[in-house]
Automatic annotation (TrEMBL):
InterPro entries: Metalloenz_LuxS/M16, MPP/UQCRC_Complex, Peptidase_M16_C
GO MF terms held by the record: metal ion binding
Gene3D superfamilies on file: Metalloenzyme, LuxS/M16 peptidase-like
Domain Peptidase M16 C-terminal, chain residue ranges per copy: 179-357
Stated name of the protein: Insulinase family protein
Pfam families (alphabetical): Peptidase_M16_C
Source organism: Flavobacterium hiemivividum
C-alpha cells in the first residue's frame, strides 16, 4: 500500500490587491472629499470623519459623550419622527456621533440620504428634554459599574498609563457629569464639529461628476470654527517594573494588565513587525500568553495583547482575567512570556501561520466599502505612502523573526511596565508581596492610597 502523504501543501503566491484611488476635491471651508466609484452593487456609503486632535474635558468630562449621544436626536430641518420614518422608508442606515456621521443606502436614494445626513450632523436641535434623558442614562450606567471589576480596571489602566490630566487618562464620574449643562454641549459642538479637519469619503454606485455639485451645495455653507488645539505633556513610562494594585473586595477573579505607553505610527518602518509581534504574544488562540495561561495552567478563559498605533501616543497592553488563587503565579508567567518574545526568535512555522492569518483577514476585508473608506482616510490622516495598502501584503510577507525581536525590544518595555491588578486584596496581596516586585496601592479612581488592611 502506498504511504499517505501528510505534508502540508505549499502556500500559493500572495494575492494581488488593487485598490481604486479616490477622486478628490476640497471645499473652501476645508472639508476634504474623497469619492471612489464602484458600480458592482447599487449601493452607496458615506463616511464623514472629523479628525480633530484629542482634548481634555477636565471638570466637565462627559460633555463630548453627551454631545455624541444627542447628535441625530432631532434637527432643525424636519421633526425627529419624520426623520426616522423617512430613513426607515428608504431602507437606509444613518448614524451620528461627535466625531462625524455615516450612512448607507441604495444608490437611487443617495442624494436624499446624504441630505438627511447633513440635517442631523450640521443642524442638530439640542433640546433640554433629550439632554436630560441622555444624562440620566449615563448616570445610571456609571452607577451600575460602581463595583464592576473590569470597568474599574480599564479606568485605572488608562489613568495610570496616561495621567488624569491627559485626554486618554481622564474618566467620567457622577460629579463631572453633573457639572455639564445643555449650554456646554452646544458649546462643545460649535467648537469641535467643524469642517476644517474633516473628511467625507463616498464609495459606491455613484458618479463623481454627479455627486460633486450635490456635496458642494449641502456642505458649502458649513462654517469653519478654527477648533482650538491643545498640546499635552507626553505620558512617561515608569522607571522600573512595578505592581499597581487596586483593592476590589467583591472581586471573584483578578484583572491583570501589563501596560506601557508607546509612540508607534502606521508609517513607521517597524509598524508591521510590531503588529505581528503583538499577535504572536497575545493575538489569537495559539499565542504565547494564551497557550501558557489558559492551555498549560488553566487559570483563565483567554489572554490577549493589543497595541495602539497612530498620530498620538497610545499603549501596549497584555491582559487577562485570572483565577484569584493564581494571581501571583500569573504575574510571573506574563513577565516570562514578554521576556521570551524579546529574547527568543519566533519559530518559522508560527511566524508563517500568523502572517498567513494577517493576509487572509486583509483580503477578506478589502472588498468592504467601510474598509476601503477607512483605508482612504488612513492614507490622508496618518500620512501614509499612496501605495501603503497595495504593498500591505508584501510588507507583511517580508517580516522576519529578526524583525520581530527588534520590534519587541523597542516596544515591549518589560523593565518600564506597570503591572496593574484589580482584585480582592485579602486573597492576593500576601502572594504578590513575595514576588519582590515593588508594590504600590491605588483606589478605584487611580489615586494613591495605603495598603489595605488584611483580615
Amino acid at each position: 500500500m502506498q504511504a499517505e502523504n501528510r505534508s502540508q501543501p505549499k502556500p500559493g503566491k500572495p494575492p494581488v490587491v488593487n485598490l481604486k484611488k479616490p477622486q478628490t476635491f476640497a471645499l473652501a471651508n476645508g472639508l476634504k472629499v474623497m469619492i471612489v466609484e464602484n458600480h458592482k452593487l447599487p449601493r452607496v456609503t458615506f463616511n464623514l470623519t472629523i479628525d480633530n486632535p484629542p482634548f481634555a474635558e477636565d471638570s466637565k468630562k462627559g460633555v463630548d459623550e453627551l454631545c455624541s449621544n444627542l447628535i441625530g436626536s432631532g434637527n432643525l430641518k424636519i421633526t425627529k419622527d419624520d426623520f426616522n420614518e423617512e430613513v426607515d422608508f428608504l431602507g437606509a442606515n444613518i448614524n451620528f456621533n461627535s466625531h462625524g456621521a455615516s450612512a448607507s443606502a441604495l444608490s437611487k436614494y443617495s442624494g436624499r440620504v446624504l441630505q438627511l445626513l447633513t440635517y442631523g450632523a450640521l443642524y442638530p436641535n439640542f433640546t433640554q428634554e433629550e439632554f436630560d434623558k441622555e444624562k440620566a442614562k449615563l448616570l445610571e450606567a456609571i452607577k451600575s459599574q460602581e463595583k464592576n471589576v473590569s470597568a474599574i480596571a480599564n479606568r485605572v489602566v488608562n489613568t495610570l498609563a496616561f495621567g488624569i490630566d491627559h485626554p486618554a487618562g481622564e474618566y467620567i464620574t457622577q460629579e463631572t457629569l453633573n457639572n455639564v449643562t445643555l449650554a456646554d454641549v452646544k458649546a462643545n459642538y460649535t467648537a469641535h464639529f467643524a469642517p476644517e479637519n474633516t473628511y467625507l469619503v463616498i464609495i459606491g454606485d455613484i458618479k463623481y461628476k454627479e455627486v460633486k455639485p450635490i456635496v458642494e451645495k449641502l456642505f458649502g455653507s458649513w462654517k469653519r470654527a478654527n477648533t482650538p488645539i491643545t498640546n499635552y505633556t507626553a505620558p512617561q513610562n515608569v522607571p522600573f517594573t512595578q505592581i499597581n494594585f487596586i483593592d476590589v473586595p467583591n472581586a471573584v477573579q483578578s484583572e491583570i494588565s501589563l501596560v506601557n505607553t508607546i509612540d508607534l505610527k502606521m508609517a513607521d518602518e517597524d509598524f508591521f513587525p510590531a503588529a505581528i509581534a503583538t499577535f504572536i504574544l497575545g493575538g489569537d488562540y495559539n499565542s504565547y500568553l494564551n497557550m501558557n495561561l489558559r492551555e498549560e495552567h488553566g487559570w483563565t478563559y483567554g489572554a490577549n495583547t493589543s497595541i495602539g498605533a497612530g498620530k498620538y501616543v497610545s499603549k501596549l497592553k497584555s491582559n487577562s482575567s485570572i483565577r484569584t488563587t493564581a494571581t501571583d503565579s500569573a504575574v510571573v508567567e506574563f513577565i516570562k512570556e514578554i521576556k521570551r518574545i524579546r529574547t527568543e526568535k519566533v519559530s518559522e512555522d508560527l511566524l508563517k501561520e500568523v502572517k498567513a492569518g494577517y493576509i487572509g483577514r486583509f483580503v477578506m476585508q478589502v472588498e468592504k466599502p467601510n474598509t476601503i473608506a477607512r483605508y482612504a482616510l488612513n492614507v490622508e490622516t496618518e500620512e501614509l505612502a499612496p501605495d501603503f495598502y497595495e504593498n500591505y501584503i508584501k510588507r507583511i510577507t517580508a517580516v522576519t523573526a529578526k524583525d520581530i525581536l527588534k520590534a519587541a525590544n523597542k516596544y515591549f518595555l518589560i523593565d518600564n511596565t506597570r503591572i496593574i491588578i484589580a482584585g480582592k486584596g485579602a486573597d492576593v496581596i500576601p502572594g504578590l508581596e513575595k514576588l519582590n516586585i515593588p508594590l504600590f496601592y491605588f483606589d478605584k479612581y487611580g489615586r494613591p492610597t495605603d495598603r489595605p488592611s488584611i483580615k
